[in-house]
């Protein structure tokens, strides 16, 4: 039995394994992070770790799990330390990181989370909670029919969703005369900062109009574009990494060497010196976000659904299939033309780098993982570039086929679904009740609230029909 990774063991780790260049006990907390999953631990926490290593000890992170206690239970016995494994080809570089100082489990004690968020030394609240945790209508307004929104409005002192926590914590700070924190969304949504601001303000207006005005006027919600490929940790990763450490790490994180973070520089309460560690601080994130969502994430979704239909387990396997590779390159050509200015000029070198990242066989990024939550992801990955093309009078066959691949993969899932969607119950009802391709596609696009779907329904429905009749291989063969 290996001993558990913890602070006392750091000095005994084998040579070549990086460890915190600071004493985690000396770090004070300045950030509360909502949604402390693998992505956060491989991305923002790694940037914060680099800042702590340079001696600015104010930015330790209090992580908050909004659902389960699993992360807290894994990391508490190891002094919140964990291993980050950067893998490329045959190489694996291990670093033990220590920027997390505590993990709170929101459903167990929502008040403790609010107390943490209300502390004067917390100057930043950051989020990676995935697309579905932002309760919005297709037009971007607050979705008041969302059950979490309704529950949090009914009981503001004991919230469960991000809007309830942010709004109530800002109310507590205001009542105590503490300056508000800055709110930084790190989710894959376009204009994630202003999207979140609108939701928090609209939510707060329903509790207290004066609070809503304060948030509107005094709280900064910078936008950011985050990028690092972080597959879910597999049991084999846990075992291999623990063996190399000579100590058991219950939940390491596996990722690629590449990382990128572009952040709108609007932090009235201060922030870590991120730019010293490669973060691009800019005045407008939108072009970066659009390029990343349409080229990286769009290709990911196309690979995920075609991969699911063709039986490819990982992104690298699917991307090695010439049919998928060719389809993705066509999708890139189509989507790149919708980008503006510099982003359009950079698209060629950007997608070249993406090809190398997707081909990294050491990552084992499962197509099923990316296939989750399509109804929440496709609007920014496929629908927005598709509509941009239609507005210019061009066609968008690959983007339409991408949506059809999603519908076909949903239909093909069977009784042991490999991936899920928040709309699953209603999606199954559509497949049970409707038979012909066009009404099925129409009902799904309508349910998912895809903007102006009537404009592209015929193209999506024909591609779906062909996948049904002739199969996915025949369909992919059609695209030059
Ligand atoms: C992926 C992203 O699961 C998904 O939907 O497309 O998580 C992707 O790996 C990251 O955005 C990369 O930065």
Helical stretch count? 20
N-to-C span: 55 Å
Q: Report the oligomer.
A: single chain
Which ligands accompany this protein? D-mannonic acid
The rounded Rg comes to 23 Å
Number of domains: 2
- Provide the CATH top-level class of the largest domain: Alpha Beta
The biggest sheet, with number of strands, parallel, antiparallel or mixed sense and barrel status, is:
5 strands, parallel
Quick structural overview:
The chain has 480 residues and is of the alpha/beta class. 49% of the residues lie in helices and 11% in strands.
Describe this protein with a few key phrases.
2 domains, five-stranded parallel sheet, Rossmann fold, 20 helices, globular, binds D-mannonic acid, alpha/beta, N-(1-d-carboxylethyl)-l-norvaline Dehydrogenase, domain 2, 480 residues
């Amino acid at each position: 039995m290996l001993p558990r990774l913890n602070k006392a063991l750091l000095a005994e780790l084998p040579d070549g394994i990086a460890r915190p260049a600071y004493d985690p006990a000396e770090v004070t907390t300045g950030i509360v992070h909502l949604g402390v999953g693998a992505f956060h631990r491989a991305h923002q926490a790694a940037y914060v770790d680099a800042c702590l290593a340079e001696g600015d000890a104010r930015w330790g992170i209090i992580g908050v799990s909004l659902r389960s206690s699993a992360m807290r239970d894994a990391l508490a016995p190891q002094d919140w330390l964990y291993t980050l494994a950067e893998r490329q080809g045959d190489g694996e570089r291990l670093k033990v990181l220590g920027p997390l100082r505590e993990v709170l489990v929101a459903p167990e004690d929502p008040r403790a989370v609010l107390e943490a968020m209300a502390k004067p030394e917390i100057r930043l609240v950051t989020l990676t909670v995935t697309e579905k945790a932002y309760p919005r209508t297709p037009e971007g307004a607050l979705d008041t029919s969302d059950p979490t929104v309704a529950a949090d409005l009914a009981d503001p002192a004991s919230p469960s969703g991000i809007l309830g926590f942010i709004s109530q914590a800002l109310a507590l700070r205001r009542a105590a005369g503490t300056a508000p924190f800055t709110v930084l969304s790190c989710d894959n949504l376009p204009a994630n900062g202003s999207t979140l601001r609108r939701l928090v303000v609209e939510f707060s207006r329903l509790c207290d109009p004066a609070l809503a005005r304060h948030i509107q006027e005094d709280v900064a919600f910078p936008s950011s574009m985050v990028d690092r490929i972080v597959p879910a940790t597999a049991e084999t990763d846990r075992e291999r990494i623990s063996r190399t450490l000579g100590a058991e790490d219950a939940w390491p994180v596996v990722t690629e060497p590449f990382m990128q973070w572009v952040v709108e520089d609007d932090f009235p309460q201060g922030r870590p010196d991120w730019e010293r560690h490669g973060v691009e601080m800019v005045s407008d994130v939108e072009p970066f976000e659009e390029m990343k969502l349409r080229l990286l994430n769009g290709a990911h979704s196309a690979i995920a659904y075609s991969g699911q239909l063709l039986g490819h387990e990982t992104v690298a396997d699917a991307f090695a299939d010439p049919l998928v590779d060719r389809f993705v390159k066509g999708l890139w050509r189509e989507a790149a033309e919708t980008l503006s200015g510099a982003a359009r000029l950079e698209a060629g070198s950007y997608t070249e780098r993406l090809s190398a990242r997707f081909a990294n066989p050491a990552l084992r990024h499962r197509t099923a993982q990316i296939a989750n939550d399509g109804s929440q992801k496709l609007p920014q990955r496929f629908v927005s570039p598709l509509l941009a093309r239609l507005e210019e009078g061009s066609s968008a066959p690959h983007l339409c086929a991408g949506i059809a691949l999603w519908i076909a993969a949903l239909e093909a899932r069977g009784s042991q679904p490999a991936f899920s969607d928040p709309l699953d119950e209603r999606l199954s009802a559509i497949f049970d009740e409707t038979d012909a391709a066009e009404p099925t596609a129409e009902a799904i696009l309508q349910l998912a609230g895809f903007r102006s779907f009537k404009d592209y329904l015929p193209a999506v429905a024909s591609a779906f029909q062909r996948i049904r009749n002739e199969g996915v291989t025949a369909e992919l063969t059609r695209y030059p």
